[in-house]
Amino acid sequence: MVAGLSVAGLILPEGIAYAGIAGLPPGRALAAGIVGGFAYLIVGRSRYAIVSPTSSSAAILAAALIGLNAPAADKGMMATALTLIVGLIFLGLALFRVGGLAGFISRPVLRGFAFGLAVTIVIKQLPNIAGVRVAGGSILSVLGDLGAQTGHWHWPSIIIGMSALCALLLLRRAPRMPAALLVILAGIALGQAIDLSTWGVAEAGQVSLSLLDFRLPADFSTWAHLAQLAAPIALILFAESWGTMRGLALAHGDSVNPNRELAGLGLANSLSAMAQGMPVGAGFSAGNANATAGATGRTAALTASLALLALALFATPLIAHIPEPVLAAVVIGALTHALSPAPLLRLFRIRRDQWVALTAALGVLALGVLNGMLAAIALSIVELLYRLSHPSFSELGRMGEGHDFVDRLRHPDASALPGIMIVRPNAPLIFANAESVLRAIADKARLGKPGTLILSLEESNDLDSTAVEALGEFGTALRAIGCRLILARMHDRVRDILRAGGQADLASTGTYSVADAAALALKES
After folding, report:
1. Which of 135, 193, 268, 405 could pair with 514 in a Cys bridge, judged by C-beta atoms 3.0 to 4.6 Å apart?
2. Burial, 440: exposed, middle or buried (Cβ in 10 Å; 0-12, 13-18, 19+)?
3. 26-43 and 258-274 helices, crossing angle to 10°
4. How far apart are CA 229 and CA 443, in angstroms?
5. Concatenated DSSP letters of 174-190
6. Using one digit for the tens of pLDDT, what is the confidence trace for 268-297?
7. Predicted TM-score (pTM) of this structure
8. 43 with 345: CB under 8 angstroms?
9. Are 329 and 168 in contact (CB under 8 A)?
């Protein structure tokens, strides 16, 4: 329960600030945090996930609402419809049990996107710290407007905002301390003690829960357009939420089911829409704060939702007096973990996917949040297709007189068998790569002129029709140069597919190990 109160102290100011990012009234964030949190607890099973508005969904929602060019009076209606569609997408994906779709945003792309998004949100919070108004738009235009108004920076706002940010970072050194709640309470106390409006310091303003003005678009064309905009919101929400849930589950020895969590997020977003909220997900900062504060079960999340409900019912006059610079400081403080370049630098150290992550980050910074998100998704798919269509292959040799066959380039002491070439494709054979990789292996066989070529299929536990035909053509090409083909490490499913595809001769040559294939080739040579 103490952990839940601590988390409520974090998601209250974060939610109000995220509503501001999306250009929506603060009450929508409260409604989303309350209803979404309760709804997730009905279906979801993560012990540590806190379902509430997140920075990424708020930023993409803001970009989507701007792209709609809807009248100001219809902005709330469009936000409600988008949230409802997000919920229905989640429920549909859960129904068809396709939770694995989260994997289509690779972790390097997600890290790059998170870094770019954090930089974008922090830059767009700087005017609230400086106490000036800018036109919005790209981060370059925000920085340009901010720089042009240097002479109008409001120093009382800057002092309050920077003091709040420093206090947040210092209080975080005590993990169980509700840092955001204490900073918010200090801001409210300051607003009560001093009339900040006379000093020109902006405040959060009136916060209210309104369930009476529930409207949805009436025409199909609007719904079709909204569905296109809701898809990236749903995808990034699930990728972010699943990453948080899975990471916390692994750290604490739990297990979570992606399809069940999809259903939980679907119900949470659907009911959030009914309460005129905004999209919700399991954000990293709230989930991590919950675990760090000592949560051991879902009582913490229930307590957080109940605390938000109590605040919404009884403390809205006080919430209205939270200084805007304090809210901006809370948002920046919540994103400090995402501003760390360590995950990106680690990719450079291991020389894997570093340019993919960097491109995703630059895409968000250069193209904006929504287009950057779409570019990141496309980049993930292109990366997958490129790797599958450009596989390497290894020539294997035997270690000593044993049964181990390894890559000869990596193990110079491994020896080739006389008259036998052993090759292993280093990726599954599929329609995108089968012809190219088998052609390259055939070219190598023409140069080496082995009597037998052993093809290890350990990476391929299944074959599509293109791969089946390509293997048949490969066998024909080898026979034309007087080389026999033996398939090694053949999975039973591959054997069945080859027989069904008219390649029974190939299937009959298959062995369960490279050593067996080598022994067969040596015996018949």
Report:
1. 405
2. middle
3. 140
4. 48
5. STTS-HHHHHHHHHHHH
6. 999 999 999 999 999 877 887 788 777 888
7. 0.74
8. no
9. yes
